[in-house]
Amino acid sequence: MSGVPFVVIDHDRGVVGDDTRQALAFARACFPELPIAAVVIGGEQPEPIAGADSTFHIRHAALDDYAPEAWGDALHELAVAQSPSAIVATGTERGNEVLAHVAAIADQPFAANVIEAAPGDPPGTPWRIRRLRWGGSLLEDARLDATLPILSCALHVFPNVLPNAAPDRDREARPGAAVVEFVPNLGPDAGRTRIVDRVQVAEGITLTTAPVVVSGGRGVGSEEGFAAIEALAELLGAAVGCSRVVTNQGWRPHADQVGQTGKRVAPDLYIACGISGAIQHWVGMQAAKNVLAINTDPDAPMVTKADYAVIGDLHEIVPAIVDEIRRRRG
Ligand SMILES: Cc1cc2nc3c(=O)[nH]c(=O)nc-3n(C[C@H](O)[C@H](O)[C@H](O)COP(=O)(O)OP(=O)(O)OC[C@H]3O[C@@H](n4cnc5c(N)ncnc54)[C@H](O)[C@@H]3O)c2cc1C
Fold it and tell me: Were 243 and a residue from 42, 47, 215, 217 both cysteine, which residue would form a disulfide, CB within 3.0 to 4.6 Å?
C-alpha cells in the first residue's frame, strides 16, 4: 500500500476528543513528507479535521453510534479503496479496539503503544518501531513486518498541540480542506456489538480530563482522611485520585485509582499526597505537566522526581493549604 497515511479520529457521537490530536502529531512525526488524511467514522458529516490535509467521512446507518466491528470493517473497506501507507490512531480504548479489528480483517499485525516508527530502509523491509511496555517502565524496539502498518501511539506521549502549528492556527482546518464521503458496503456481521444504553457514572470534572488532580496514598491513612483531599480538590476545580493501596484498603473506589492498573492522567498539575511514587503509580501520572509531592519522606521517589515538594505531614499541610486558599479568596 502506498497512499497517504490514515489517522483515525476518536470521537464520541461527533465530539472529537483532544487525545485524537496525539495521533495526528504522531503521524506527522512518522511521515514528515506526506500529507495526512483524517478518517471520521460514522456520525454526521464533520468539519474538515484541523491538522490533517484531507478528511474522509465514512457514512453508514450501522455507524450511527460506536460499534467496534462495524468501525473496523468500514475502515478496512476505505483502506482497500484508498491504499493508505499506514493506519494510526491514539492508543485510547476505542483507538486500540478499532485498529485491532482492522488488523484482524486485513490479516496484518497491529502494534500498540508505539512512540517511534520509521519505514524500513531500503523500502519494503520491515518497519522499525519503539514502543512502551509494562506500563511505561520498559522500552521495546521491534520490527514490524507488514504490508499495511497499523499502529497506535502511546497515550500522552505526543502533544495535543500539533508540531509546527502557530498557536492560533492549531485548531483550524487547513484552508480549502474538504471532506470526502465514503459509503461502505458493510457485511451482516459488522454490527455484532452495538450500544443499546449508556449510563453516565460521573458528572462534571473527571479524573482523566481534569486540569488538576489531587491524589492520596497510604499516607492519607483512612477513608475519612480524604475529606481534606476532597476539600482541596473542590477549591482547585480538581478531580480526586489515589494509589492502589488506597483502593485495596477500600478507602476509595477503583475508578479513582491512578497507575498501571488504574487510569492514565495528564493534568497540568498533579498533587501527590502521601504517595511514595512506585513505578506502577508513576506511569499513570508521568504525563502531568507539573507534580507537587507532599510527603514526610524527602527520599520518596515521588519527592525526588517531583517539580515541587513539601516535606511534612499531609494532615497538617493539606488543611493549611485549604485554609490559606479560603483566606485569600475571602
Ligand atoms: C502489577 C502491579 C500493578 C500495580 N498497579 C498500581 C496502580 O495502578 N496504581 C498504584 O498506585 N499502584 C499500583 N501498584 C502498587 C504499587 O507498586 C505501590 O505498592 C503503590 O503505588 C504504593 O501506594 P502508596 O504510594 O499509596 O503507598 P506507600 O508506597 O506505602 O507510600 C506511602 C507514602 O506516604 C508517605 N506518608 C506516610 N504518612 C504520611 C503523612 N502523614 N504525610 C505525608 N506523607 C506520608 C510515606 O513517606 C510514603 O512515601 C501495582 C503493583 C503491581 C505489582
Answer: 217
Ligand 1 mean position, distance from CA 288 (Å): 18
Single-letter amino acid, residue 204 = G
- Looking at domain 6-182, its CATH class is alpha beta
pLDDT tens digits, residue range 96-141? Answer: 999 999 999 999 999 999 999 998 889 889 999 999 887 677 899 9
Q: Indicate the SS3 state at residue 68.
A: helix
What is the enclosing helix (H) or strand (E) of 329? helix 314-329
Q: Which fold has domain 212-329?
A: Rossmann fold (3.40.50)
Pocket test for ligand 1, best of 137, 214, 257, 261 (most atoms within 8 A of CB): 261
Which DSSP string do the residues of 79-113 spell out, in sequence order? HHHH--S-EEEESSHHHHHHHHHHHHHHT--EEEE
Domain boundaries, the chain: 6-182, 212-329
Nearest CA to ligand 1 atom 2: 280
